[in-house]
Amino acid sequence: MQVPQPPRTGSLTHISPSAYEASLNCLAKAVWYSTGERRILPDQPTAILGTCFHTVLAAANIGRFNGDLERVRVSARDLFDEQAKFLYERAHPLLQAKFPSVERMPYYNLHRERATLHAASISSTRPISNISVDAGNEAVRGQSRSERQFASRDGLIVGRPDYVDRTSGTVVDYKTGVITDGQPSAVTEPEARQLRLYAYLVSEGGELVVSKGAIVRGDGRRIEIDIPKSAADAEASRARAQLQAINAAGDAGKSFEDLASPSPTNCSMCSCIPLCDAFWRDSKPEWAESCGVHVEGRVTELNRTTIQDFRLVTLDVEVSRGTADCASVSLEQVPESWLTIRGSALPSVGDVVRLVHIRQSTSEAGVTIMRADKALTSVWVVP
User: Which of 34, 144, 215, 362 could bridge across to 62 with cysteines, CB 3.0–4.6 Å?
Assistant: First the structure.
């Protein structure tokens, strides 16, 4: 696969909570969230499963699941499977090459059962509704306050909270992750900013005054915070300022690379790494602990082998940039199907490649042996 072109910079008509949060650290990432063609880079499996999780909980919040507890669970699993299939069929071909079916994605059943348990709990307290939820729909319409898009009066801020509890005046956001032992369970500052923006958007519509926000995690833990109107208004003002900063940079003719702010923290799990020249310009080996091992370099040797009718490729690369602390790497036994997506030719000796999210195995005779990570690794040829 060739490295795709980054999105063009320019004026944005509005900013979302996710783009706002990204802009606080990297304006380029905010542009990617707002205007990037998402299918040119492969989604992580966790992103797809997270969307399915939210779809099921949105349905539960509007009373979509009818019947006794077991019937609710069956309906929730069916909706999760339906949404997952919908997203899988539209996913980047690399993800489809790695996982021959959506059910083969890591932790599929775990995410589905967590969504099912949440849905059963929610449905036991919600009135039955005849509103349908179809796989692929981005919003639940009608009288629901689950997954409905809100906009500020000036149209500059838009957002879609997971659920708005009208009874208690609370915006709720569901997170698929869990808090492990030793981690703080409080709402993080990025989560608080998101909740404050949602509270502002819902309250500005005049239908409801939102004064609280809640995060519900994948293990069922719920944490609430108070949201005074002044705090929500101030967050909205900051979001407008960030939108103005993005547009000013675009109007000044700054490129995606100009807007990027690479750092170990900003680049951690960033999907833009394959196409972000600023990352490759600035990254250093000491970044590896925070954002993973990524290598740019020239192919010096390519070997193909077949094991039990499964074709594999080993790439030897002379390292020029990235986060690997070595002069050369050998990325061993990458499935050939990962490298020939959409009819792409295999990399050739002399090609400059970017090896994204690889894992160090051992070092032998001055060469660092690397392995592919099934969920994350991708190999790109620099045009």
Answer: 144
Residue 182 lies in a domain: no
Q: Cα(287)–Cα(348) distance, rounded to whole angstroms?
A: 28
11: confidence class by pLDDT, cuts 50, 70, 90? confident
Residue 6 in domain: no
| Sign, Cα dihedral of 332, 333, 337, 338 | negative
109: in domain: yes
pLDDT tens figures, 61-90: 778 888 888 999 999 999 999 999 999 999
Helix (H, G, I), strand (E, B) or coil at 300: strand
Q: Does residue 71 sit within a domain?
A: yes
Query: In angstroms, rounded to a whole number, what is the distance separating the alpha carbons of residues 80 and 102?
Result: 11
Give the domain CATH number at 359. 2.40.50
How far apart CA 320 and CA 363 sit, in angstroms, is 18
Which residues fall within 8 angstroms of residue 109, CB to CB, at 6 or more apart? 103
Q: 199, 193, 205, 195: which is closest to 152 by C-alpha?
A: 205
Amino acid identity for residue 266 in this structure: N
Residue 27 CA to residue 200 CA, distance in Å, equals 23
Separation CA 21–CA 87 (nearest Å) = 25
Residues 6+ apart with CB under 8 A from 86: 135, 136
pTM of the model: 0.85
Q: Which domain holds residue 353?
A: 283-381
Structure tokens at 210: 């939102």
Q: DSSP assignment of 20-80, as one string? A: HHHHTT-HHHHHHHHH--GGGSPPPHHHHHHHHHHHHHHHHHTT---SSHHHHHHHHHHHH
pLDDT tens-digit map of 164-179:
888 899 999 988 766 6
DSSP letter for each residue of 93-134: HHHHHH-SSGGGSTTHHHHHHHHHHHHHHHHTTS--------
pLDDT tens per residue across span 78-121: 999 999 999 999 999 999 999 999 999 999 999 999 999 988 98
Kindly provide the residue ranges of all beta strands, DSSP E only, lying in 220-377, ordered along the sequence: 222-226, 293-307, 310-322, 328-335, 352-364, 367-372
Q: Which residues of 148-187 are buried (b: 16+ CB within 10 A; e: fewer)?
A: bebebeeebbbbbbbbbbeeebbbbbbbbeeeeeeeeeeb
Q: Across the chain, what does the average pLDDT equal?
A: 89
